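Quick log. Single chain, no ligands specified.
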Amino acid sequence: MESTKISFNIAGRLPIGGGNPIVVQTMCNTSTDNIEASLEQCRRMAAAGADMIRLTTQGIKQVESLGKIKERLRNEGIFTPLVADIHFLADAALAAASVADKVRINPGNFAKEHATACSKFVELISLCKEHGTAIRIGLNHGSLGERITNLYGNTPLAMKEAVMEWLRICVEQQFFNVAVSLKASNTTVMVEAYRLLYKAMRDELGFIFPLHLGVTEAGNGDEGRIKSAVGIGTLLSEGIGDTIRVSLTEDPVNEIPAGRAIVKAIEEGYSPFGGRTSVEAEDWNDFIIKASCLWGPSLLDKKIDDFDLSGSRVGGNPLSGDDAARFKDMLLQACRRRFTRPEYIACPGCGRTLYNLEDTFEEVKRRTSHLAGVRIAVMGCVVNGPGEMADADYGYVGEGRGHVSLYRGKEVVMRYVPQEEAIDRLLEIIEADDF
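-> predicted structure:
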């Protein structure tokens, strides 16, 4: 069946989908109620070239703050579209429809009863039609809900099926100002989910809603960039995806050049279909993204088991043997092929995070670097932390100001641990399990 890609404009300024340039977005990690801090971060993001900015909007008070932030940015001549990030409260989503340029939701979280969630979603669509507001339906691997997982398991198929339920409602309501995301921290799960959804939209609907790509909780540094480039680059090379975010546990401004670099790498033929056999890079960051886009998809799909870095150059110089070996280990792990170091799942943080996530994550990495193959999550809060870290062996999750909950798998082992003690307690739990 022939299929077309739907496109739409956000705030009348930003075209998404339909063959338009890939949109690169990011998200504030400030409290939205801290208007000055959020404004400062939005200004830096806009100056760095962010196409879209998302802010935590968990309640009515944060919707009001978002409105003030938007008004001041517009008065300053900054027209970057703002997205309200809603997790559970349907009333917040309804209020945000008249304030934000786009509302990000998982409609299944609106109510425990599916029929009630559907009714609230239709109500939101009506308001978004009235105000010209876009919707992103965002379903992550760890937040599918009991109803869907009982039917399909916690699988890429379940992710696809959940989204298709909501898209059918959009079509019934003749609302097409919609983007979709199916993120996971596991690159294999993430890529398979998007492929399944793309095929389902093509075969059932005959058109493709714009897709927002991302590897959620990718971490930071080289590993975060490599993992993101593998997942996002694999799909972009297949013509899947219209907007992206590289989720890093760093200053969110850093996400923008990383995203641009992935898009540029694919455009320059750094993919399995580009005919390249080596990488010519300006610097190390440029190299790891290009090389991940070039060899990552074939490793992820198990079409190859190894790859040859000879002939690759960084800054005009041949890639050193040590750098080649280090990169190869990281890429093979990002593609779920060989585990030679710990696997970290770490969210970027947002307005709900009440501790210094970046410094804490670095300290957790430093003190657990010897635990090859162990999956450790460091999450900002309990809103989506326990769900999004579903693949982790152990978890460190913020729970209120200055306190942390520690997990073994999905089970809470210790709650309300003072933050200054939490890493020690986490290591005690791991060591007790003979890791």
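The first strand starts at residue 4 and ends at 5.
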